[in-house]
Amino acid sequence: MRIGNGAAEQLQLDIYGELIDSVYLYNKYGSPISHDSWMDLTRVIEWICENWDQADEGIWEVRGGASTSRIHA
């Protein structure tokens, strides 16, 4: 039996594309994001640029540890 969510302790880099797409669509069809929100997003993007190549668990929810051998498109 497993209690809790193992994803809380995992590095998952697969969500950031969806995040950027969501911000784009909100900015285009909703209302423009604020300057403060844009600056927060800029910090996230800088972190992604520095860490995109790290081994992660991604969408596969591997319990045995991070992997770089899976591709999601």
Summarize the biggest pleated sheet: none
Residue stretches low in confidence (pLDDT < 50, at least 5 long) are none
Distance between the termini: 32 Å
Total helices: the number is 2
Shape: elongated
Structural class: mainly alpha
Q: What does the radius of gyration come to?
A: 15 Å
Percentage of residues in strands: under 5%
Helix percent reads: 40-55%
H/E series: HH
Round the mean pLDDT to the nearest integer and report it. Answer: 80
Short description:
The protein is an all-alpha fold and 73 residues long. The protein has two helices and no strands.
Question: Can you give a write-up of this model?
Answer:
The protein has helices spanning 16-29, 35-51. With 73 residues, the chain is mostly helical. It is elongated and about 40 Å long. The mean pLDDT is 80.
Key phrases:
73 residues, mainly alpha, 42% helix
Question: How are the SSEs placed, and which strands pair?
Answer:
Layout (H helix, E strand, L loop, with lengths): L15 H14 L5 H17 L22
